[in-house]
Structures are given as C-alpha cells and as structure tokens.
Amino acid sequence: MEWFTAPDYWLSRLVFQRALAGLYLVAFLTAALQFRALIGQRGMLPVPRFVEQVSFRVAPSVFQLHYSDRFFAGCAWSGVAVSAALAAGLDSLLPLWGAMLLWLVPWALYLSIVNVGQTWYSFGWESLLLEVGFLAAFLGNDDVAPPVVVLFLLWWILFRVEFGAGLIKMRGDACWRKLTCLDHHHETQPMPGPLSWFFHHLPRPLHRVETAANHVTQLVVPVLLFTPQPIATAAASLMIVTQLWLVLSGNFSWLNWITIVLALSAVDFQGTAPSSVPEAPLWYQVVVLAVAALLVGLSYHPVANMISRRQIMNRSFDPLHLVNTYGAFGSVSRVRYEVVIEGTADDVPREDSDWREYEFKGKPGDPRHWPRQFAPYHLRLDWLMWFAALSPAYAGAWFGALVERLLENDRATLKLLRRSPFPPDAPPRYIRARLFRYRYTTWRELRETGACWDRTYVREYLPPTRLAELAQRP
Q1: Is 116 in contact with 47 (CB distance < 8 Å)?
Q2: Who contacts 424 (Cβ-Cβ below 8 Å, separation ≥6)?
Q3: Do the beta carbons of residue 441 and residue 472 sit within 8 Å?
Q4: 213, 268, 224, 223: which is closest to 246 by C-alpha?
C-alpha cells in the first residue's frame, strides 16, 4: 500500500520522536523531584487519600493498585530511564512491535501520574504530552516508513492546539480583539522569564504587532498544515518561530516546546528518505488504521467544543487523555498580585516581629531577584501560587497543608523553595501570608534601585498561624 506510508517524512519522524522523548524525560524528572511534597504520602494532596475517593474507571492509574513513595519514585525514575533510551534511539534497534511497546511505556507511566496528580497536574500540557505520546507509539521505527494517517493526526493535534487557543482569545477578553493584551501580559503572566521585563517595555505599537501576529499564527496558519508542500512546511516553520518567541518571553513549562515538536513533524526534509523503504506489514496497517479510526471518532468532542460559543480550555474528554481540548489566556490580568509567605520565631506574633520571607524558585518575591529561565522544567508549586494570588479559592485544597509543612520545616517542601529563612533545626513558630501588588519597574527605577519589581502591600492573606491552630482545624 503505497498510500499508507510517507517516506519523505522519514527524518521528520526521527526528529519528532527524539525531541518528544526529551520532553518525556523532563516531565518524569519534574515528577521525581517534586512529588513527595505535593502528592506523596505526607504531601499536600496525598495520592492514598485521592485513590480512596476516586475509582480506577474514572482515573486509571497503576497507583490505584498500590502506592508508596518508594514505588512512585521507582515509576518516575523508570520513566526518566525509558525516555533517555528513546531519545538515544533504542527504538530503532528493536523490531517494529517492540518499538511500539517501548513507546507505550512512558505514556502509561505518565498517565498513571497525571491521573492521581490532582490540581498539581491540571495543566493543558499534561494532556497534550499524553495525547501526542500515545500517537507517537504508532509512528513506527526504521522498519517502516511513517504512516500518513498518523502524521495527519499529529498535524490535527497541532491544529487544535493553535486554532483552539486562537478562538478562545477572540471569544474571551476584549483586549485580544483590541490588540492591547500584551500591554499587560508580559507583566502578569504566571511565571516571567529573564527577558519578560524587556518584552514588557517594548513600544506599545510593537505589542499591537505581536498580538496581531499571534492571531494570524493561530487562526490562519494552522489551516495551511493540510496544504501541499512546501506551503505546509512554511506554515509549520512560522509556528516554530512564534513558539520560540514565546519561549523567550516567559516560562510556560513544556507547552511551547511540545508545540514546536509537533510542528517539526510537518516539516518535509527533502531528500532524506532511504533508498530502500521496507513495506509496512499487514498487522501494523490494521493496528494503525484501527487506532486512527478510534481517535477520529473521539475527535467529535473537541470539534464540538471549538465551534461552541461556550468553548472551554484544557479539558480531557476521556480518562486516557487520548483526545483533548486546549487553549490559554482567554482572559488576561491587568494587575499582578503575589502571595508573600513569612515566618517568625517570636513567641508572640506582632507587626514589628522579626518576620522573614520565604523565597520561591520561579515566582516573583524579592523585588531585586531577577527571574530565571526554568521551562521546559515545570515548577508546580510556583504556578499554583500564581492562581492562589488570583483567589484564595484556588488554593483552598492545599494552602493550609503548605503552611503546616513550613511550620514543620518539612524537608521535601523546603526543597521546592529557593530559600528558607530558618535553619533546619529551628522552624518558625508562626507563619503568615500577605498579598502584594507587583509591577515592573521603569528603566529609571531599575538603574537607581537595581530592582526589576516594585511591590505594594494590599491586604492580609493569612493571619499569623501556628502549628497547634492548624491541627485543630477539621
């Protein structure tokens, strides 16, 4: 069946699979290094408590069958090892069926993590990694040329990512239609990067150009993915350039990078196909076509969502995360708020007590501390702290547990922070949280003070609280 495979995309598949394996590695590394404080047995939202309340059918996961911190760590580090092996090309050394099974291993392991990760794993890029990762298992290896239908489905995911994000913007905040959202977004985004301050201070006319270019890239260019070459390659290349611009402007975990990886699958690298291409075995054709039919059928839900006036963002329509809907920043904050957590060792907490501030790795805190680049690595606590500043309701399930762990000087929790102001053997007696308004300094303020942020006290977020008071809460 000559129509079944696309030999010209041989190198496209190779680049796509190696890059995707690299993103899997980052995702598993993030899980391995952060899970104890977040979802471990003594985590803020423990997995054992979650699986008691949610059935396997709703959230299929190996951790529904057994959980311990050691077992979770073993799964996460196994995911790191398998991802590294795939990035190194182990799948090309296996028979076709073996390569497919090997690609399903990180998908199954990461699915198990996401389905018990609760609010810490509620981001759209988790489902996107799973959807793309599942499909990658059916791209084949050196034993066969890439199947056309699988490539088409990868481009279909890319289309939904970009087009869905474009629609949610046009239907959402009016500033997207007025081309003014980027007057605020670089300052108020969840986790700024080292260049975000400079992006914010670009001339406003350039912000208008940025926004207009975003609309073109998300609402017009995706359609061109399904046109003949070289137009499709040009469209994919434009998407890659746009995503790299976003990489420079902020920390968005691996969202931008996986979009780039998807776009690479649509690039036609001329003259890269081997002179002799093996014919796809019949069993492989049957499996690929059956999977493709399943995914096309499941695509009804994201399509219905995209054309709906009540379009939602980042929703999975099945417990295996096979087909999902995506989108980001349907609304843009005009003002940045941050929750600043402080502790004191004083026996009686007063306003003039020795309050010492906890420093996070990524979220703004000390006005003089310049943001760092972390993406594609994902700082889950820092991201949720951004939501907590928007409304205490977003943090109701875990913020009290965070305060309790800080009052205990919990080692796993302190590892998530850049700096704790208290020595390991002397935890604070009281913790409080205060809400501040943050804004970028001007060029003049930066030269005079060396601070990239200026902050103003807004209100109390959490009154001084000690460990005994938390223990008495229901």
Answers
A1: yes
A2: 409, 411
A3: no
A4: 213
